[in-house]
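pasting for ref
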Amino acid sequence: MKLLVYSKTDLAGANIASRLTETLSFSASAFHSFPSKSWQDFYLIGVDQGLIDLEMPSEGVEWAIFLSKHKSASGKGCLTAHTSGNLAGTADLGGNPGSIAISNPVLQSALLGELKRAEEEMNLGLQVTVEATHHGPTELPFPVTFVEIGSDESAWNDHRIGEAVAKAVSRCIAAPHGGVHTALGVGGGHYSEKFTELMVSQAYAIGHIIPRYVLTESLDRSIFQRCIDRTFGGCSCIVADWKGTPSVFKDYLKSFSQASGKELIKV
């Protein structure tokens, strides 16, 4: 089974969930102790708490999409997708320090492509972008992909934006995925135009992304292997924003690529 999870306290998540029930023929159901709605083998679940520290039963769960809001200092309207995790030694927003969720690169890339398609069809004027790996939860034993509406209350409550995300999610989950190279992304900013373009075009399916601001001397370099190990379906290569990678890490990436047997792709 697959889960579509939102917090009842999250305006954007509730908006997307409501639009999903208008898009797909859900019926009343239950997932363990959680009241839910189901369609085929998908369960739409509203929880009372926030998502970044969420714990859930895992038996029989293949993966989950978390429906959520996005906040940024710029307040720019956007639709985003990302994997959760704390790449460095802090955990200010849920999860455990230095711990990462399991990424789902094929689903995440397909979802990003459908977000782009829906945004263009509805002419919303919103940026569609992948985000680097950040925040919790980190300990769930199944892959987690966040899809988010940004970046203020007016956007979170906007039914047309919620409809666009619901359309993207419903299309994504109804179609088979696969056939692209799965990758770890390294370098660039938190919002990577390069990685977004590669994912939308299906050139690469990228799961975890370790951005430039995390690549510091204090970074525990075992995080690279952990990101590869925590990739659903396996990780076939490393895609690096070479210009957006600090010089001190370029030689390391070359040696890590050789040692791990993962091809290094410079973009």
